[in-house]
Design a protein that fits this description.
The protein is α+β, with helices and mostly antiparallel strands. Helix content is 49%, strand content 14%. The chain is built from two helices and two strands. A hairpin with a 4-residue loop joins strand 1 and strand 2. It is extended.
């Protein structure tokens, strides 16, 4: 597999979020970005196929549909 390099410009807040996720998930920052890209790809595909993205809180008996633009 050929890998390519890219530059990603983030705000201080975005970088802080990325570093926190990497630390909590025990991944590199690149690993977090790759995982996020795969998740977004799957969500986009399923939404295009007419499915909905819903978060459910069973304890509060609450469901929320996520709208992705």
């Amino acid at each position: 597999m050929t890998k390519k390099t890219m530059t990603l410009n983030l705000t201080d807040e975005e970088m802080s979020v990325l570093e926190d996720l990497a630390r909590r998930k025990d991944l590199s920052k690149t690993g977090v970005v790759r995982q996020a890209l795969r998740l977004y790809q799957m969500v986009d595909l399923r939404l295009r196929e007419g499915e909905k993205l819903i978060f459910e809180d069973e304890k509060k008996n609450k469901k929320s549909e996520v709208v992705v633009l």
